Structures are given as structure tokens and as C-alpha cells.
Amino acid sequence: GLKDGDGWCVCASWYAKAVEAGKGCPIFLKRTHKNTLKHLPIETLKKFAIDLS
Questions:
Q1: Which pLDDT score is estimated for 53?
Q2: CA–CA separation, 32 vs 44, rounded Å?
Q3: What whole-number distance in Å separates Cα of residue 26 and Cα of residue 48?
Q4: Residue 49: strand pairing partners
Q5: Is 38 left (phi over 0), alpha (psi -120 to 50) or beta?
Q6: pLDDT for 1-28, tens place per residue?
Q7: Which long-range contacts (CB under 8 A, 24 or more apart) does 26-33 make?
Q8: Is the pLDDT assigned to residue 33 strictly greater than 80?
């Protein structure tokens, strides 16, 4: 099972549904595939990014 600090992948369409439901989790934007932009705008993804300074 997953332990604290483990990373995992989420399907972009499911992540978009989570964001729309107010349940978006932190993401590593630099590791996120560019096709995610077909589901969510970059401004939204940046709000959840934990790897931007």
C-alpha cells in the first residue's frame, strides 16, 4: 500500500472532476503531462502545484 510521501498517478479527466468537486489534491506540475491542459487550464493547475516557486 501507499505510505506517507509516496507519489501516485491520477488520470487527467478524473483529476479535473475532483477539482470541479472542490477536492483537487496537490500536484507536481513539472511532472504533469501536457495533455492535462485538454481538461484543465494552466491557471487552475498552478493553484494546486507544489513544485513552483
A1: 77
A2: 13
A3: 5
A4: 27
A5: alpha
A6: 889 888 888 999 999 999 999 999 999 9
A7: 26/50
A8: yes
CA distances from 23 to 11, 53 (A): 14, 23
Scored b (16 or more CB within 10 A) or e, 14-41 reads: ebbeebeeeebeebebeebeeebeebbe
**How far apart (Å, rounded) are the C-alpha atoms in residues 7 and 43?**
22
Report which of 14, 9, 19 is spatially closest to residue 46, judged by C-alpha positions. 19
Place of cell 472542490: 22
